[in-house]
Specification:
- The chain is mostly helical.
- Helix content is about 35%, strand content about 0%.
- The chain is built from 5 helices and no strands.
Length: about 130
């Protein structure tokens, strides 16, 4: 059924052309993935198995490559990478002290001192009564 001059196609025909063009473009760029692996950069949360389920209690051999991926994913970032990967990892990446700790030098070693005020104030937050 031809549309008359100056008239538009019926809405169903317009929608059909639109969907046909869109599916053609989607099929052009679609990729088929057949091999799946564990993302080594994403932490894995283990879920407990059901003890009464027979198909979950069957022991299957686990490949060494898969175990290495699991162990690498569970490592802390300082063991995984030689340098920080994000800005937030830079804070605390180098945790070794710049100056060795010397307990006799009071400039770098500041232990807690007990005075009348601190001894009086300590028991109150713990719910104990102060000695007076």
């Amino acid at each position: 059924m031809e549309a008359r001059r100056g008239e538009r196609d019926p809405p169903d025909a317009l929608q059909n052309r639109f969907h046909a063009e869109r599916t053609k473009k989607e099929r052009q760029w679609k990729l088929l993935f057949t091999q799946y692996t564990v993302n080594p950069y994403h932490p894995i949360h283990m879920v407990a198995r059901k003890p009464m389920s027979w198909h979950e209690n069957i022991r299957e051999p686990v490949s060494d490559e898969f175990l290495n991926l699991l162990h690498r994913a569970a490592e802390v970032p300082r063991r995984k990478y030689s340098m920080p990967q994000t800005e937030s990892q830079e804070i605390g990446w180098h945790a070794t002290p710049l100056v060795p700790l010397d307990r006799s030098d009071i400039r770098f070693y500041c232990p807690r001192w007990k005075t009348e005020i601190t001894v009086h104030g300590y028991p109150a937050p713990r719910g104990e009564k102060s000695k007076e």
